[in-house]
Amino acid sequence: MYDKKLMREIQQLGFATLDLNLYLDTHPDCKKALSDYNMIQREYENKRRMYELNVGPLVNFGMSPSKYPWEWLDGPWPWENE
Q: In Å, what is the CA distance from 54 to each residue of 16, 20, 21, 27, 37?
């Protein structure tokens, strides 16, 4: 079943990686920011994979594998689970 806690964690980690990505665009030599980015990105990827294995794909366009049959036709969509 849909796990709201896991989805919230994925959203928070995604925001943090985006924020650090933008910071690193202007501060490419900041070792702490790069270390934080890599750590958070690994955690994000692990949680995203966990979600996809148990619920279904979160992103398309070559970023998420699909079981047979093509899972993008199956619901519910992440935003439909409130």
A: 23, 28, 28, 37, 26
